[in-house]
């Protein structure tokens, strides 16, 4: 489980996160939405140890990790899929996977751990692209590679920062399908998402960050029935409820 309690963090210029609290149960997806500059990436980076927490708690499976170095937090079971994917343009897919599957990481993998073979079984497209460099991959392939890299760190908690950004609707739907499958497999997922309808589609709960504060945190079931109040918080056009003959999540996935 990921437990964040009264977390404050920021940069030299000032505090960005103000007493942020939420819990994510194993096997569930917590979405975080908010306007540009609300502090979503700062939250993810603080949990990953890239931005120091000034106060508050971050617990992974009951262990307090705030203040540890980023590589120690990764070893505690936190995987990060950063915004913009950040794959190396000159390294091949195979080289990315070999680097991510470093020996200390493989040693921590149990029988259920992630191996390159298991990754390629899950993501056959990467198997076809092993010799291609990062710069030669499509946006969707880069995103799959970024997720694969994080999984090879054997995470219990996966942090995804706008994984569908810049992807075609079809590729974005595939990425969301992958995230849902990983959560169904027991992973704890924190998903930063710009598109409210995507967040509602796959997350169990959705939180809204505004100026670094959580102003809403509820199960997504409510927003699926009536997304208007949530959409109003984000000042985006409300998504109409789905017609009765189609399941909601898919319709919203198709909404541009
Ligand atoms: N490295 C940094 N140094 C100083 N200030 C930063 C840094 N990164 C972000 N900020 C500031 O922190 C605030 C929150 O930024 P953050 O990137 O966390 O927001 P966000 O919700 O992820 O935005 P977006 O949706 O545009 O990605 C902004 O005011 C931003 O200018």
Provide tags for this entry.
single chain, 256 residues, alpha/beta, Rossmann fold, 4-stranded antiparallel sheet, 25% strand, globular, disordered C terminus, binds adenosine-5'-triphosphate, ATP hydrolysis activity
Q: Which small compounds were modeled alongside the protein?
A: adenosine-5'-triphosphate
Going by helix content, strand content and strand pairing, the class is alpha/beta
CATH class: Alpha Beta
Rounded average pLDDT: 86
The CATH architecture would be 3-Layer(aba) Sandwich
Spans where pLDDT lies below 50 across 5 or more residues: 244-256
What do we call the CATH homologous superfamily? Answer: P-loop containing nucleotide triphosphate hydrolases
Largest sheet: 6 strands, mixed
- Tell me how many strands there are: 10
**Radius of gyration, in angstroms, nearest whole number:** 18 Å
Through-space gap between termini? 33 Å
Q: Helix-strand pattern, N to C?
A: EEEHEEHEHHHHHEHEHEEHHH
Instruction: Kindly report the CATH topology.
Output: Rossmann fold
Number of helices: 12
Q: Count up the domains.
A: 1
User: Fraction of residues in helices?
Assistant: 25-40%
Shape: globular
Strand order of the largest sheet: 6-7-8-3-9-10
Strand percent estimate = 25-35%
GO biological process, one term: L-amino acid transport
Family: Belongs to the ABC transporter superfamily.
Domain ABC transporter: 2-236
Keywords: Amino-acid transport, ATP-binding, Nucleotide-binding, Transport
